[in-house]
Amino acid sequence: MRIELRSQLREFSFAVVCLVLVGLYLHLALRPYRASRWAAIPDLSNLQEAIRLEPSNAEYRELLGRSLALSGANLNDAIASYRTAVHLNPYVARYWLDLAGAYQVAGHTSEQEQSVEQAVEADPTTPHVAWEAANFFLVQGDQERALRNFRVVLANDPEAVDSALQLCWRATGDANRILDRALPRRPDLYLSFLRLLVSKQEVAAAENVWNHLIALNQEFSTKLAFPYFRFLIAKQEVAAAQTAWQQLAVLDPSLQPYLPSRENLIVNGGFEENLLNGGFDWWYESKPHVILAIDTSEFHSGTRSLSVTFDGQSASEEGISQFIPVKPNTDYEFSAEYRTEELETASGPRFAIVDAYTNASYVLTDDLLGTNPWRLQKARFQTGPNTTLVLLKIVRQPANPLIRGKLWIDDLRLVEK
User: Fold this and answer.
1) Please, are residues 47 and 63 in contact by the beta-carbon 8 Å criterion?
2) CA atoms within 13 A of residue 38's CA, in its CB half-sphere
């Protein structure tokens, strides 16, 4: 639209109107800016001035409530300010949680509960909101709502998983309730819960969680289950450990070669598979003055053997062993192929089989010395009336003499006779 200015009066009037509009615009535009500058240093007087400039800004009301609550000046005024904030903007969970905190200090439990519920309704998926809600309901003895909110925490905050599970277990002591109400159906969370139960030596609950983990039918790293197997073995739950190992092999077909058979109860006796360092495969650890290695250039059969190199110092054990489930009062035959090269010592390595719990000795072969081509060692034994698990290892008796040289072992077997 074209405006024609035909007189000085019209020009003056137009200029005045423009100046008024510009002034009004600047006034309205500067109010939020001025308010934010006052609120940048959130003491009482500054916040009150910010609210005077921007009375509909919920954030300034919330900050004023927080300042009043922290100063202890007037809790009722703090509550009133928080209430105004949530009235102006009911969709910010933090406002509701701060109001709930003020109600808690004032001893208004029912109002606190309503505020917590409003916070969860405003933001139902944020972990820190669910965490505060869960802890409130836990204190109130409302386990159902507490577990429901802990479920949000567990699903969305990896760093809070262990703490949340600790609180859930402390509150309920019931693995089934935690599985049903709090735990999303994820292997990593079930394994975290299993780890907690293992640390607390809860055998029955740990077995329950393990069975639920397997029922998920979702793959997870085999190594994450090894602490559970060690726990079962330590608790003499041999049958449960066997069952769990078989279940894991069904879930992870790559474990099928690590299952014992009637033809050989020793797992991976030819070292053809990678050593798992757990479960019912070989366990190994670093020992001073001993080097364990898989050798692909020297073997009795297949394509690999285990080499053990001694550096000339004292080495009592070689640091490799395997747990083997057996039957009580049953005859077994052990055999192993070995080769030595310049193995010099007054006490050579020996194959040993002992009861895993009583340390009762069943097999202790002659010591291996000198330089020898591949040779076979055999031993027969009968387990005791209470023996369900034996430990196969390589030892030295006596253990102290210095030792230098190299040993290879291959084709270890244990069969029921």
Assistant:
1) yes
2) 21
Tokens of 348: 């050579």
33-56 as b/e: b if 16+ CB within 10 A? eebeebbeeeeeebbebbbebbee
Q: How many CB atoms lie within 10 A of CB 97?
A: 23
- The CA dihedral of 49, 53, 57, 61, to the nearest 10 degrees, is 20
Give the start-to-end residue ranges of the domains of the chain: 17-123, 283-416
Check residue 116 and give its pLDDT. Answer: 84
Cα 212–chain centre separation: 17
Per-residue pLDDT of 126-168, as tens digits, reads: 999 999 999 999 988 999 999 999 999 999 999 999 999 999 9
The three-state secondary structure class of 399 is coil
Closest CA to 190 of 166, 172, 214, 164: 214
List CB contacts of 52: < 8 A, sequence separation 6 or more: none
* CATH code for the part of the protein at 283-416: 2.60.120.260
CATH of 17-123, one of 3.90.1150.10, 3.40.50.700, 2.40.10.340, 1.25.40.10: 1.25.40.10
Cα–Cα distance, 247 to 210 (Å, whole number) = 10
CB neighbours of residue 96 within 10 Å: 28
Catalogue the long-range contacts made by 32-40 (C-beta closer than 8 Å, 24 or more residues apart): 32/57, 35/60, 39/63
* Close Cβ partners of 169 (under 8 Å, ≥ 6 residues apart): 178, 196, 197, 200
DSSP reduced 3-state for 126: coil
17-123 and 283-416 in the same fold:
no
pLDDT in tens, 299-346: 999 999 999 999 989 887 789 999 999 999 999 999 999 999 999 999
